[in-house]
Structures are given as C-alpha cells and as structure tokens.
Amino acid sequence: MNGDNSQELEKKLAQKKKDIDTIIEVGKFYFLNQKFDEAVAEYKKAIALDSKCIDAYYNLGITLEAISDQDGARDAFAKVIALEPGNKGALEHYDRLVEK
Q1: What residues have CB less than 8 Å from 20, skipping those under 6 apart?
Q2: Whole-angstrom distance, CA of residue 56 vs CA of residue 14
C-alpha cells in the first residue's frame, strides 16, 4: 500500500467513525425524548456499520432496559463485556439483569 492509498483509507475510516458517532448521538436524542424504538433503530444502524462499537451496544442495552426488554438488554451488555471486559457500567447492568 502506498502513502496515497494509506491516507485515503485513514480518511475513509475517520469519516466512518464520525458517521457512527453522529448516529449514536441521534440515538441518544431519541432516547432522551423517550422515542425508544427510534433510538434502538439508530444504535442498530451504528452496530451494522461497526460490529465492535461499544458505545452503540452500551446505549442499546440502556434503551432496551428502559423498555423492559431484559433479554435484549442483557445480550447488548454481554456484547460490551465481551468487547471490553472491564467495562464497569456494562458489568453492573448485566449483573442486575441476571439477578432478575
């Protein structure tokens, strides 16, 4: 890979990260306005772009927990823990959901 291709790839990856961050912010906006289905859709859209996006899984878990989708929330937090084993927030939510 030459320098031009490397710079182009880095530019595309930076744009993708920016797009994902924007999608997550839109999801948070929907969540704060109690439009939970729309928030879930945004977080899933972010996950479709990056299957290792911890923020998307975490926020998906929070949203699913808010609408009492315990299984979905537990799965989302489990994914966060798999991607980042020391994530205290995800561990707390996951443990609380498992105890129910």
Answers
A1: 46, 49, 50, 53, 56
A2: 17
Which residue, 41, 6, 9, is CA-closest to 27? 41
Cβ–Cβ contacts within 10 Å for residue 63, how many? Answer: 26
pTM attached to this predicted model:
0.90
Quick check: 81 and 90 in contact, CB under 8 A? yes
pLDDT in tens, 66-96: 999 999 999 999 999 999 999 999 999 999 9
63: nearest Cα among 95, 90, 96, 36 = 36
